[in-house]
Amino acid sequence: MIKKTMIWFEKHYIISLIITILIAIFIFYISSKSFEKGTPVDFPYKTIVYHFSIFFLLAFFLSLSLIGKTKNKYYIFIAILISIAYGIFDELHQLFVPNRYCSIGDFLINSTGIILSGIIYSFRFKSN
User: Fold this and answer.
1) C-alpha dihedral over 47, 51, 93, 34, to 10 degrees?
2) Are 20 and 61 in contact (CB under 8 A)?
3) Are 79 and 21 in contact (CB under 8 A)?
4) DSSP per position, the chain
5) CA–CA dist 49, 113 (Å, integer)
6) CB 55 within 8 A of CB 83
């Protein structure tokens, strides 16, 4: 079932690309929000889950759109690199948002989600 869904998204790679762009816009929007200074984080695990899952989805849909267009499984690596670069720029962008900061920890969580996405997506080709 999951493999069929992935194949459908590859075949309709424009939809995957639109979803990728929407995720990137959402990430930028959330990163642009300023918080009051000293606002406590209710549950730090929420931010970990957010960073991991949103960058996992970004890399996953980017892989679907790149591979769907080219039919080249090695584009998973390109999708990972683009997603990691976006994660770096996202953290740097936060330096310019009041009461936000650049976090190496967030970047590492982002990268973990991205790499796991690439690993999981690569299993699609192992079963062929």
Assistant:
1) -30
2) yes
3) no
4) -HHHHHHHHHHTHHHHHHHHHHHHHHHHHHHH----TTPPPS-HHHHHHHHHHHHHHHHHHHHHHHHHHH--TTHHHHHHHHHHHHHHHHHHHGGGSTT----HHHHHHHHHHHHHHHHHHHHHHHT-
5) 10
6) yes
Q: For residue 18, what pLDDT is reported?
A: 96
Q: pTM of the full predicted structure?
A: 0.88
Mean pLDDT of the chain: 88
Domain that holds residue 16: 2-126
Angle at 33 between CA 18 and CA 60, to 5 degrees: 30
Tokens 């984080």 identify what position?
Answer: 41
Q: Lowest mean pLDDT of 7-11, 33-37, 45-49, 76-80, name the range.
A: 33-37
Tell me how many domains the chain contains: 1
Q: What whole-number distance in Å separates Cα of residue 75 and Cα of residue 56?
A: 16
* Closest-CA residue to 113 (of 74, 86, 75): 86
Closest among 51, 49, 70, 59 to 121, alpha carbons compared: 59
